[in-house]
């Protein structure tokens, strides 16, 4: 789960990482009041769950409270690559001498947290990695050993930070960032830029903070940070119903049992020239209620023109799935053409149930490829 900049900074503050003073507001008038309260020039920063806000015009300096009101008025409601701005962070403006980059992620191949640090911050880190990889210091931390002062010292020395006060401040921030990363069970903590002010003070000017969705039950205070408004409404509905669903852009609703089979189904639909509308995994259970819930989510998407059920019965019994489909049709009056490929445990029985129900919009296919072709045809027709 990705956090907003202001939420990440709240966590930074909690762990002792210096950040600028700021207030989150949702209206231009409140922006003015916040700027007034903070005093002096401020930055008005769009709060969206996507990076590159600066380039998109979502970050503006404001000299006066009136100016802050005007800038907030421009930024609120703005669309930044598909994300509508509903909140802005009003922050006391910083003077910037230098911009650095510091992050912690998981390096899955090394099975360890990985620090990355460079004095060439502010820009896209991918660009630094591509054009001057030697400037990017990478350092793994053994999770059992934890982060020790030498880790942080090595980061600053290897990156060529020479000022002793800067070295000390950055080392302290790196160590606190590690505490935040572990304490919040984060997947990513990124500070870009980590700035040095003309007075030599080091501060986190931005925050990209992502926490492990599966660990949220241990962190109710982080779980509360979820912004339900920002989520795709279909994905929010799916989460509410306990349906594993990812919205895609096409018109063939895809439903399978098991993540692997569902992904393969998405691929096969694409392979035969179709465009999947979603990834929806029924999981290992696949009882009637689960199918009803999944169909409810899938058919809520107005782009869906046909539905492709790809079921391989192992633990999931095909007759159960067939009953689920029939029940859902009965309860919901689905008019979409539905292609069903049932194979595995009780497949014969499942297909018989579908046949005998005689629903005109249900089409049984014997193979995965034929099923995909049929569903794509029906979506087009
Ligand atoms: P991003 O574009 O989404 O990564 O947003 P950032 O928070 O990193 O801001 C983008 C850029 O805006 C920074 O790299 C800075 O150059 C600039 N910026 C942000 N806050 C301030 C500030 O307080 N003072 C000044 N002078 N520039 C700022
Ligand atoms: Mn940034």
CATH top level of the largest domain?
Answer: Alpha Beta
What would you report as the Rg, rounded to the nearest angstrom? 26 Å
Uncertain runs: none
Structural class: alpha+beta
What can you see in these coordinates?
The chain is of the alpha+beta class and 381 residues long. It has three domains: 21-92, 2-Layer Sandwich (Dna Ligase, domain 1); 98-223, D-amino Acid Aminotransferase, Chain A, domain 1 (2-Layer Sandwich); 231-380, 3-Layer(aba) Sandwich (Rossmann fold), CATH 3.40.50. Helices cover 39% and strands 25% of the residues. It has helices at 5-14, 28-38, 65-75, 125-131, 149-158, 164-183, 220-223, 233-241, 259-271, 288-300, 318-332, 347-357, 368-380; strands at 2-3, 22-25, 42-46, 59-62, 79-80, 83-84, 88-92, 98-107, 112-118, 137-140, 186-196, 202-204, 208-211, 244-247, 252-256, 278-281, 306-313, 338-344, 362-365. The strands form five sheets. Strands 1, 8, 9, 10, 11, 12 and 13 form a seven-stranded antiparallel sheet that branches. Strands 2-7-3-4 form a four-stranded antiparallel sheet, covered by helices on one side. Strands 15-17-18-19 form a four-stranded parallel sheet, sandwiched between helices. The longest helix has 20 residues, at 164-183. The mean pLDDT is 93. The structure holds guanosine-5'-diphosphate and manganese (II) ion (MN).
């Amino acid at each position: 789960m990705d956090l907003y900049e202001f939420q990440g900074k709240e966590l930074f503050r909690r762990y002792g990482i210096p950040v600028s003073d700021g207030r989150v507001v949702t209206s231009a008038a409140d922006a003015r009041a916040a700027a007034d309260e903070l005093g002096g020039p401020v930055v008005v920063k769009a709060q969206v769950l996507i990076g590159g806000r600066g380039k998109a015009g979502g970050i503006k300096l404001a000299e006066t409270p009136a100016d802050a009101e005007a800038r907030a008025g421009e930024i609120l409601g703005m669309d930044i690559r598909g994300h509508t701005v509903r909140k802005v962070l009003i922050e006391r403006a910083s003077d910037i001498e230098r911009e650095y980059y510091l992050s912690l992620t998981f390096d899955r191949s090394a099975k360890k947290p990985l620090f990355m640090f460079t004095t060439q911050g502010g820009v896209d880190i991918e660009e630094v990695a591509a054009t001057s990889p030697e400037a990017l210091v990478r350092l793994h931390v053994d999770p059992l050993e934890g982060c020790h002062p030498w880790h942080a010292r090595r980061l600053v020395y290897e990156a060529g930070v020479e000022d002793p006060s800067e070295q000390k401040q950055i080392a302290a921030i790196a160590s606190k960032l590690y505490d935040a990363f572990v304490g919040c069970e984060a997947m990513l903590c990124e500070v870009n830029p980590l700035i040095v002010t003309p007075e030599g003070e080091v501060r986190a000017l931005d925050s990209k903070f992502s926490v492990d969705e599966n660990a949220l039950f241990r962190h109710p205070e982080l779980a509360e940070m979820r912004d339900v408004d920002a989520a795709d409404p279909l994905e929010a509905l799916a989460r509410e119903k306990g349906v594993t669903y990812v919205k895609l852009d096409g018109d063939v609703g895809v439903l399978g049992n098991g993540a692997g089979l569902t992904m393969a189904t998405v691929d096969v639909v694409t392979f035969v020239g179709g465009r999947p509308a979603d990834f929806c995994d029924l999981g290992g259970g696949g009882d009637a209620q689960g199918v009803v819930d999944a169909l409810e989510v899938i058919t809520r998407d107005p782009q869906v023109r046909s539905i492709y059920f790809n079921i391989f019965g192992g633990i999931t019994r095909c007759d159960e799935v067939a009953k689920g489909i029939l029940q859902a049709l009965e309860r919901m009056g689905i008019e979409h053409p539905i292609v069903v490929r049932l194979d595995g445990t009780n497949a014969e029985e499942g297909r018989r149930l579908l046949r005998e129900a005689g629903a005109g919009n249900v089409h049984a296919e014997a193979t995965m490829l034929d099923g995909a072709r049929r569903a794509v045809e029906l979506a087009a027709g």
